[in-house]
Description:
CATH architecture: 2-Layer Sandwich
Order of helices and strands: EHHHEHHEHHEEH
CATH class: Alpha Beta
Largest sheet: 5 strands, mixed
Amino acid sequence: xxxxxxxxxxxxxxxxxxxxxxxxxxxxxxxxxxxxxxxxxxxxxxxxxxxxxxxxxxxxxxxxxxxxxxxxxxxxxxxxxxxxxxxxxxxxxxxxxxxxxxxxxxxxxxxxxxxxxxxxxxxxxxxxxxxxxxxxxxxxxxxxxxxxxxxxxxxxxxxxxxxxxxxxxxxxxxxxxxxxxxxxxxxxxxxxxxxx
Length: 196
């Protein structure tokens, strides 16, 4: 990994930036610099995931829907889809597939993740809802860290998907809705469009 000192880990930036057009926009040098400039000295961002293939998105949807079915065996198809989409975006609107989303967290100068209340990718069931950005949290440090993350990323033009504190996007449908843009900038990226 690159150095997380007051910025975004460089090797992850290059990896995400090279995976598709959305990653390049989300973590372009300009966006990374905007985020870096807003972070207190000694803190950085760790990118967990950016662009995701359609096959990976389908697999995540199936896996999570299977878990929901186990915990709610009597639920109908429409309710299963609603419960699943709280945590995993349906293909028609999935921002990771468009290369328009990034999952990330804050790290200290030693690369240790800060307390943000849950681990990245904690489901609503695993975290008793603490994965929601505005969830009540036990520790004041976790809330302060979430607020710092929001300040930094909103300042760079990204929006948060409120059921996942770690999920931020730019240019997808949700971003357009939240910013009042007339349309999304990005749609799904085909495997043939992914830079190698």
